[in-house]
Design goal:
Elements lengths: L3 E4 L2 E4 L10 H5 L2 E9 L2 E2 L2 H14 L8 H15 L4 E8 L16 E8 L5 H6 L1 E7 L14 H12 L4 E5 L5 E4 L3 E5 L5 E3 L10 H12 L4 E3 L4 H5 L3 E6 L3 E8 L2 E2 L7 H15 L7
Parallel strand pairs: 7-8, 7-14, 11-12
Antiparallel strand pairs: 1-2, 1-6, 3-4, 3-5, 5-6, 8-9, 10-11, 10-13, 13-14, 14-15
The structure holds N-(5'-phosphopyridoxyl)-D-alanine (PDD).
The site of N-(5'-phosphopyridoxyl)-D-alanine has 14 residues, from helix 6 and strand 13.
Length: 288
Amino acid sequence: MPRIAYVNGRYLDHRHAAVHVEDRGYQFADGVYEVINLYRNRLIDEDAHLDRLDRSLRELQMDWPMSRQAMKVIMRELVRQNRYATGLVYIQVTRGVAPRDHKFPEDVRSALVMTVRPMLEFPAEMIEDGVKIIVIDDMRWKRPDIKAIALLPNVMGKQMAAEEGAFEAWMRDADGFITEGTSSNAWIVTAAGTLITHPEGQDILRGITRQEIIALADELGIPFEERKFTADEASAAREVFMSNSSHFVTPVTRIGDVTIANGKPGSLSLALHERYLQFMESEPFAVP
Ligand code: PDD
């Protein structure tokens, strides 16, 4: 089965799928994206992702490349053609193809690329052992709430993490507070059992998984507070975890050289992970 990608109206063999050299995404990183988890034939939180895409596009005065409904149809067709039950759908919209000039081009249609890649279901050792993270400075622009494809600081951060044998890097703002991970939101559980994450605003991405976890925590009766925390507070926390659409709730058991609590994933993190899996199973099938 060849992998298929969608590129501006065409379903192409993934190996040869390409955009024009003057696509503004390629030249200026002038575009936005979404990553939607395909879990056992369900598109998890699809509408919330498309709402966030809509917001990112509006913030950058970019047009939808087509109607939302048409995009949903293409997504399903792509999933159907690729025949993966579990994987990640990647959607990228750029301002289109035009001769290189910083200001917005006139009369240009935004460009759409969509891919699906297969993914193993959540690796057991990540939930059994948790992962290590490191802490780095947040060097991003001042609008990381927009899901822009310009991800150089995130790329550098994730590479630094990999070089230190860590799974993720959490970023620290100029005042010493953790904002989020390079591709995930950041959470701690205090000694009193309160779940904490950075408040919404312009300095973090409003994760779709984050929103779901807040709702699930409420259901489970877990006290929750949106407030900033430092790396020191995280290192001394009862539990630490990260969240995103590809890895749901991932327990963190080491921050740099510091072991969190007893070095095992915490009970609230595990309960939220379990509850999140149930939530995914309750989503409607996207493809039969
Ligand atoms: N990243 N923060 C950042 C900086 C992210 O890039 C992501 C997602 C999140 C979590 O958002 P969500 O729960 O909606 O996936 C938070 C995706 C997975 C990526 O770039 O691959």
